[in-house]
Write the structure tokens for this entry.
Amino acid sequence: MVTQTTDYRPLDRTHYGLLETAVAVRKKVLIEYFNEFRQLHTLGGLPKVLLREGDEEFLEMATGERIRLDRIIVLDGHFFPGYEDFSDLFAARCSI
């Protein structure tokens, strides 16, 4: 039997709750995240639904874009777990 392993890290309740609220109230959001190649992307728009595929969870946007939850760096100014240190980098980028 072949088992598939993943390096997915589930979100804590607080950050998952931010995403649930954005989906429920149909709030436009600004998300910065890494894609599967570790390239930085910025996306603004309406979050549509939270999905689970196997052991991984995703946010699907109204545009059809799917973002793995543990790759979200910042959502509307809230830094996600594992990326808290990016706040200094992002602040420096905005001050240039």
Observations:
- The longest strand covers residues 47-53.
- The two ends are 53 Å apart (CA to CA).
- The CA atoms of residues 48 and 64 lie 8 Å apart.
- The mean pLDDT is 89.
